[in-house]
């Protein structure tokens, strides 16, 4: 029996080709490779994954194809090659050959060495410059198949290509999809603030590198920016999606947020940078408590009141002297001692700190606890 299925016309057009590893390295060097478009996640490969890729090239194993899209800044100009799929592979190869080519986008995870199977665990591994000339040429002359999408391929079609390719791999996080779909003053500000404070997320032990690789740090920054703007509120998927899609910021607002954010983080660094062993403040190294300590700092600065509502000064962006409030490990340890005692007898506080509670009432309860404990 014939089945009549209405199949739509192809959404994309593409060409097939291949390029040597040296081509991709050269494009990155001259600025014509867009390695990480907005929809691409950060580096999610472990060092062992990267080492295995280098091993595959040296032994002649086939490498999965790369998907690119050519973009032309102007007619007749050299195309910008946008990486739709294959960023992890290309980033690994580029960082291994010349990590300096990643520029300001380089991260701690980009530094790795090639460790062949069977190498002793004390061996530091091999850098690119440690390889023989023959081995180096084997890598840079490897040809990798590529699909090049037409420059007229629409943005929704590009996102669908990326989504389909990644459904069988690590699922995209809500923040990665949010970042890919929406472009606004709000999203750009959150990304910039995250990059400015990039090392703190790992150093403070608030969120893991895996979560950071899927833009969990940008999501947390977004929640803190909304805290400055709106006070203590619930910030779930719907609230963040709405902010990314429709939140417009005036210049005065952006300047105010940056000043407040940096002042609070500078203050909290005196708390979270403490490296005592055992870790006296380990309980507070969570997203929930960072949000609460951030809100308490805003209260000290006059941006929020005790209930977590934005004050008149906070709404008018009129704080003329934004200096970091006093904070130190002893300050936070007193709060921790009080919490340990209070949670045994205070059921509402125990509920407020259970898990990663991010509803408004739980957040307000944690702020109430901090103000009542530390304002004495």
Overview of the molecule:
The chain is of the alpha/beta class and 376 residues long. The protein folds into 2 domains: 14-171, no CATH class; 179-374, no CATH class. Helices cover 50% and strands 7% of the residues. It has helices at residues 21-30, 47-59, 87-98, 133-140, 155-166, 174-181, 185-196, 198-204, 209-213, 216-230, 237-246, 251-272, 287-301, 312-316, 329-342, 347-352, 360-374, and strands at 14-20, 33-34, 66-71, 80-85, 143-149. Strands 1-5-3-4-2 form a 5-stranded mixed β-sheet. β3 and β4 form a beta hairpin. α1 crosses α3 and α7 (185-196) packs across α10 (216-230). The chain is globular and about 65 Å long. The model has no long low-confidence stretch (mean pLDDT 80).
Decide which structural class fits the backbone: alpha/beta
Mean pLDDT: 80
When the domains are counted, the total is: 2
Mind telling me the C-alpha Rg? 25 Å
Helix content: 40-55%
Count of helix runs? 17
Terminal-residue CA separation: 82 Å
Q: Tell me the strand percentage band.
A: 5-15%
Low-confidence stretches: none
Gross morphology is globular
Order of helices and strands: EHEHEEHHEHHHHHHHHHHHHH
Major beta sheet, strand line-up: 1-5-3-4-2
For the largest beta-sheet, the strand count, sense and barrel status come to: 5 strands, mixed
Instruction: Give a count of the beta strands, DSSP E runs of length 2 or more.
Output: 5
